[in-house]
Q: What sequence folds into this?
């Protein structure tokens, strides 16, 4: 669920690079990171899974399943990414370019209206 959001954010930030370029770069890094996380999570699978024993040697409570620590680590990673995207305060280059383009178009429209009015005068119901 994060990829479409991160792609849009990436496109906004690195404009004028194409959307396809941003998507390919993000896909490559996400594949690399997921491949790198597999051995890391495998190494962490048994952390905090030992059975606690009492003084008489009997187990206190049940055993914690494997990958519990990895699961909580994934929750922290996703929460961190969500907070980062939700609080991102960068420069949105594509949005600024669109505003600039719109301002130029509006200025050209106003210039043409003024030119039209100077040539033909203001005739009722004309360009407004």
A:
């Amino acid at each position: 669920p994060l990829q479409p959001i991160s792609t849009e954010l990436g496109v906004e930030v690195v404009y004028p690079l194409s959307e396809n370029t941003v998507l390919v770069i993000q896909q490559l890094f996400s594949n690399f990171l997921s491949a790198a996380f597999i051995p890391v999570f495998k190494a962490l699978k048994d952390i905090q899974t030992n059975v606690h024993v009492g003084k008489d040697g009997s187990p206190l409570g049940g055993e914690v399943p494997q990958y519990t620590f990895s699961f909580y680590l994934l929750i922290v990673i996703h929460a961190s990414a969500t907070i980062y995207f939700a609080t991102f305060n960068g420069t949105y280059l594509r949005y600024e370019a669109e505003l600039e383009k719109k301002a130029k178009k509006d200025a050209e429209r106003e210039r043409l209206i003024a030119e039209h009015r100077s040539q033909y005068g203001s005739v009722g119901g004309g360009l407004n």
Remarks:
- The CA atoms of residues 51 and 62 lie 7 Å apart.
- The radius of gyration is 29 Å.
- Residues 93-120 form the longest helix (28 residues).
- The chain has four helices and no strands.
